[in-house]
Amino acid sequence: MSTDLGTLRGLAHLARLEFDATREQQMLGDLNNILDFVAQLEGLDTTGVEPLVHLSQEVNVLRDDEARNTVSHAEGLRNAPRKDSDYFRVPKVLE
């Protein structure tokens, strides 16, 4: 399968890309190499091959999600540059 310069220019327009003449020829060669590789893959016999859903058979092993306080409220506010009783004071964000 081979792509011509007009098709490359059309794809570049759709992708909002601009190439100079030397880069255009290089991109055309690269695109044709990619399409040739895909054509080789299309020629492979995949009968009897199960579709791949996951790359491995491993299942995520996650710990139970348990709520716990690792830092107390007072410890969290101890190093705050500015605080107001039980809250952090931060610069105003909205007008």
From TrEMBL:
Which InterPro entries does this chain map to? Answer: Asp/Glu-ADT_sf_sub_c (IPR036113), GatC (IPR003837)
| A Pfam family the protein falls into | GatC
Q: Does the keyword Protein biosynthesis apply?
A: yes
Reaction equation(s) it catalyzes? L-aspartyl-tRNA(Asn) + L-glutamine + ATP + H2O = L-asparaginyl-tRNA(Asn) + L-glutamate + ADP + phosphate + 2 H(+); L-glutamyl-tRNA(Gln) + L-glutamine + ATP + H2O = L-glutaminyl-tRNA(Gln) + L-glutamate + ADP + phosphate + H(+)
Q: Give the Enzyme Commission number.
A: 6.3.5.-
Group of enzyme by EC = ligase
Instruction: Please indicate if the UniProt record lists Membrane as a keyword.
Output: no
Going by the UniProt record, its keywords in alphabetical order are: ATP-binding, Ligase, Nucleotide-binding, Protein biosynthesis
Check the record and name the Gene3D superfamilies matching this protein.
Glu-tRNAGln amidotransferase C subunit, N-terminal domain
Q: What does this protein do?
A: Allows the formation of correctly charged Asn-tRNA(Asn) or Gln-tRNA(Gln) through the transamidation of misacylated Asp-tRNA(Asn) or Glu-tRNA(Gln) in organisms which lack either or both of asparaginyl-tRNA or glutaminyl-tRNA synthetases. The reaction takes place in the presence of glutamine and ATP through an activated phospho-Asp-tRNA(Asn) or phospho-Glu-tRNA(Gln).
Query: Subunit structure, per the record?
Result: Heterotrimer of A, B and C subunits.
Q: Which family does it belong to?
A: Belongs to the GatC family.
Descriptive protein name: Aspartyl/glutamyl-tRNA(Asn/Gln) amidotransferase subunit C
Q: What is the lineage of its organism?
A: Bacteria, Pseudomonadati, Bacteroidota, Cytophagia, Cytophagales
Gene this protein is translated from: gatC
